[in-house]
Fold each of these.
Amino acid sequence: MTTSDAPGRKLTAKGLATRERIVRAAAQLIYEHGAQNTNNDQIRQAAGVSGSQLTRHFPTKESLVRAVLAWQADSIVARHQAPELGELDSLAALRWWADSYIASQDMLRGGCTFGSLAAEVVKTEPIHRDAVAVGFERWHELFKRGLSKMRERGELRPEADPAALAHLLTAAFQGGALLDQASGDSTPLHDALYGALAYVESFAAER
């Protein structure tokens, strides 16, 4: 989280708390209703702030949406850095990652928190395309780093391409989450993730 809202202006601890509360409230509302259907009054009431506090931290809707995109990306990265996942550098860790999302009711309720917003704004508000790209790149890098370590240790064959496999895992998750959201059934996400993992495992070195 940033410690200032404008160049040269540092936030106090109270200001940071207020900013965080606004972003959290906006993130929840946007997740449930979409960016286009979320207005300042709804955010102000949900965050418990005044109109002047809201505009002080986020003078435009665009600045708030970018903050929410960054916050959602931070949340996704944090979830992928849970102790149980280690460095995402083993097949067991990748299976644990898949299982944790397949079991999550969040996927059935509203889809991926970052992906849902990204899909909306990348078409309707191209100004946010760079923020979306940065968020996905951070996510992709986590998988790529783990898969690279597996290849370096000889657990994956040399022809395994960590970057391509990382794209596959991310795309399988996004597509599966969307299908889950549409159907209210976790089967599509299960099939997409375990299909992607099976392909990753096809590069496992023979022991």
Amino acid sequence: MNWRHCIFLVSAFSLAAALAAGTARAQTRIGEAAVVKNEVVRVMASGTTPINVGDSVVRDETVRTGADSATRLVMADSTNLSLGPNSTLRLDRTVFDDANSYRDISIKLTTGAFRFVTGNSDKAAYKIQTQVATIGVRGTILDILSQRGKTTVVLRDNGASRVCTLTFQCIDLTKPGDTAIITFAGGKYTIQKFSTPPWTFACGAAAGLCNTTQYADATPTVTPPVDDGSDPTGMLCGR
């Protein structure tokens, strides 16, 4: 083998390693599917692929459920996020504080019904968006219904949530049952607060859909790989 061939091989291996590292960064693993009923898929430009129990979810990923379908995702900070039938969300942005908590995570609830149970991250870490609202979470359980031109947010447990329109009209939910309804019609946003929720997330859509588990419990048990100093799961790539 001549020296030019050696240089070519070294360059090729270096390029492959760089591409692999870039893929690992792009595919930062931020949670796993703990419950899957019927059609639950990840949506990509090339099409869709099914999500099964134990499969990872990654940042910059869209998850969608079909009719008579549901899923519960357990995030790395042990936040539990449930989706009812015909629901779509995007795991838009994540910055890890450490392996078990986020410094910043953004989730877009495009359409459908969701239950959000906060985990170990700082209360300011999560940014939840719908088509007409932004939602801040402070250590509680929220039911969220995202529809065309309308979002309903119900506080289900102790804690609090601040709900705002996209034009920064805000109300605080501080007692279980407090509900915010945001609508957009005729070019105008309206936000109202109620003490009795008109809607609730359908926990019966799938067995275990409204249970809560720790991320470590949701992760399938596998034989540990040899520690070569790398980060094959990409869990820390968002730091």
Amino acid sequence: MSAVKSKRMPRAVREQQMMDAAVRTFGQRGYRAASMDEIAESAGVSKPLVYLYLNSKEELFTACIRREAKSLVEAVRAGVEPGLPADRQLWSGLRAFFTHTAENPDGWAVLHQQAPSQGEPFVSEVAVLREEIIAFVTGLIGAAAREAHHDPALPDRDVAGLAQALVGAAEALAGWANVTPGVSAKEAAGTLMNFSWAGLENLMHGRGWQSRGE
């Protein structure tokens, strides 16, 4: 009997290996075009093993959405250092967001392109991610307003609307940056800061835009 026995790969490691392959395949081929055969081959396992770990293509795709969403949220949260001035917090959060989406283009494609276009239950999964990021950005904007005024000067509805707009702009810009050669995460973050911060700063100091004659 051999003194050295081959070790079986732990289930969690094998599952992540299969999900890595699934994210690549879904991100590059699309949900409909991707096959479990392709995913199994990319992961270096048999198709029955993929089904054993993750029961169906729908469940596998859902698991990919949840994993990529969690990873993105954690990256953005980790990128923001509490205690910094409001503009530095927003800047660091945006850099973390664009760095993560640039380094994980297949994961971003799953979240931003594939899942929203496939209907339920995938749309709801992505909505959970979006609401979590919006809630985080809402907190940053609210904190910035308090920093500027020493009280919550911006109404909650205005803060919520600004957060929605900022997250929507970040999503669109990440999609563009990922298919445009030469656009770095730092450049994308700088573009959005230039687009958004001047207006946010004016609002926080009571200098909101007003339509003339209305």
